[in-house]
Write a structure and sequence with these properties.
Blueprint lengths: L18 E5 L6 H4 L14 H4 L19 E5 L3 H14 L4 E5 L2 H10 L2 E7 L1 E2 L2 E2 L1 H9 L3 E8 L4 H9 L4 E4 L4 H13 L2 E5 H7 L6 H6 L2 H10 L5 H8 L3 H15 L4 H11 L3 E3 L2 E3 L3 H6 L2 E2 L8 E2 L6 E2 L6 E2 L21
Helix pairs in contact: 3-7, 10-12, 11-12
Length: 343
């Protein structure tokens, strides 16, 4: 995030050339209304809402317009980036109460103590990946507006940020301080902001964009579990499935992605961001969101079931992923239903 840590005093109040500003409300133009596309995993392109520009004359983004943002929480591990964000907040939100944290424990405690009107965070903090914690905060309505800063461009990371209900994401490699300033202004005014590089990933472009497009949510979750090199028995223990089921999933993933051996599977999982090897061990960004969207059938004719774990609901204005209880007996709306071969 070196680009963002530049001097922020002379920032122009115009969008960055390498970014796209958006609004969450559906566009009223006929062209956008006739293209109901989705950015969920498996879709080939972004939604019209994500691509619809925020009108410049909608409302002025000044101190008066942003007066409703009373409490702002900054959760960024990089000191230079955090300092840049604090300077921008002092400029745009001089009236707001700003609190800064640097790890997941402090962030969880700050959100539990009092909900934030605006949360600006990086996708990973000092003590590990924060995407699952952000999804939990959105589900519990602990933050109203959410902006994520990240330098990572793996498809899984960007899709996870989108699915948890973030109102925008800034690519710290390309946008720099002007893009960050524009993102804070537009999201604070009720709009959205997504860097151009992230929009390309959400459209399925790039060398690994096909993975999110061809695999179902359940297959993506199994891919993330097996992506660290685990064998089928270890995967079965983690997933709570039979050894035969995990073997069938692995075979299906190899066929769809045209993989020849386990080494290629691990390499692709790392490039897609499904698995990350760190000093703390193996991390899987957004793994809980993948699990909540995964629905399995053990035998033909039986109702589908979710993987072990409490159902989680992610609420967002432009995207919604709801994990229904297993007792409901129906699959997730808009998600593929995975049918396991009968034993």
């Amino acid at each position: 995030m070196q680009c963002i840590s530049e001097c922020v005093n002379p920032l122009p109040l115009v969008p960055s050339r390498t970014s796209v500003s958006t609004r969450l409300a559906p566009s009223s133009s006929p062209s956008s209304a006739s293209s109901p596309r989705s950015v969920a995993a498996g879709a080939e392109s972004a939604t019209p809402e994500l691509l619809a520009p925020l009108p410049r004359d909608l409302q002025p983004c000044d101190v008066v317009t942003l007066a409703h943002l009373r409490r702002v929480l900054v959760a960024i591990d990089d000191c230079l980036v955090a300092d840049s964000v604090l300077r921008l907040l002092a400029r745009f939100l001089p009236h707001a109460e700003v609190e800064q944290v640097r790890d997941r424990v402090a962030l969880r405690g700050a959100l539990a103590a009092r909900a934030a009107d605006f949360l600006i965070t990086s996708e990973a903090l000092l003590d590990g990946d924060a995407l699952d914690l952000l999804a939990e905060a959105r589900a519990r309505r602990q933050c109203d507006r959410l902006l994520v800063l990240t330098h990572r461009r793996e498809p899984q990371v960007i899709f996870a940020i989108r699915s948890l209900g973030a109102h925008g994401a800034v690519d710290s490699r390309s946008d720099g301080a002007p893009g960050l300033a524009d993102a804070i202004r537009r999201i604070g005014c009720g709009g959205a902001y997504w860097s151009q590089s992230f929009l390309e990933i959400l459209r399925g472009e790039g060398p690994n964009g096909h993975v999110q497009r061809v695999l179902s949510p359940a297959e993506l979750y199994v891919f993330a579990v097996l992506g660290d090199g685990s064998d089928d028995q270890t995967g079965a223990d983690v997933l709570g499935l039979s050894l035969q089921s995990v073997h069938a999933y692995r075979k299906r993933i190899h066929q769809k992605l045209r993989l020849q051996h386990k080494g290629q599977l691990v390499s692709l999982a790392i490039r897609c961001g499904l698995v990350r090897f760190t000093e703390r061990g193996v991390e899987r960004p957004g793994i809980e969101a993948l699990r909540s969207r995964s629905v399995f059938r053990t035998r033909r004719g039986e109702p589908p079931r979710c993987l072990p774990g409490p159902p989680v609901e992610f609420e967002a204005s432009s995207f919604q992923a709801v994990a229904e209880p297993a007792a409901a007996g129906v699959s997730l709306r808009g998600q593929k239903r995975v049918t396991m071969p009968s034993k």
